[in-house]
Design goal:
The relative contact order is 0.12. This protein has helices spanning 3-11, 14-21, 26-52, 58-80, 90-94, 101-109. It is built from six helices and no strands. By secondary structure, it is mostly helical. Helix 3 packs across helix 6. Helix content is 73%, strand content 0%.
Length: 111
Amino acid sequence: MSDRFSQLRSRMPVGKVQAARDRMPHMPGRCFRGLRLFTPVVLITGLVGVIVNAPSGATATVVVALVWAFGVIEYVNYYLVRLAYPWRRWASEVSQWRAPTLVKDVRAALR
């Protein structure tokens, strides 16, 4: 291993080190593909549960709605279209409708 790579590797978090040398293993790729189908079911079930058992009080209702909306936004960000960009470039980058990194990794793992 080159000295430069060793120095770089020692400063990177563990996930980045693995990403630098390998692609996603096959089994986690299959799990993430399954989660892509399972997560909407959980979100819809959660929404039905919130509607049926509506929290008492306006503050609790707003908090529950925000948590649920955050879950939906994260699902979109992980599986449908990349939404996470640096704040200063967000408006110009998000309009390009790029595929999320997780989707690219899963596709590569399952080839």
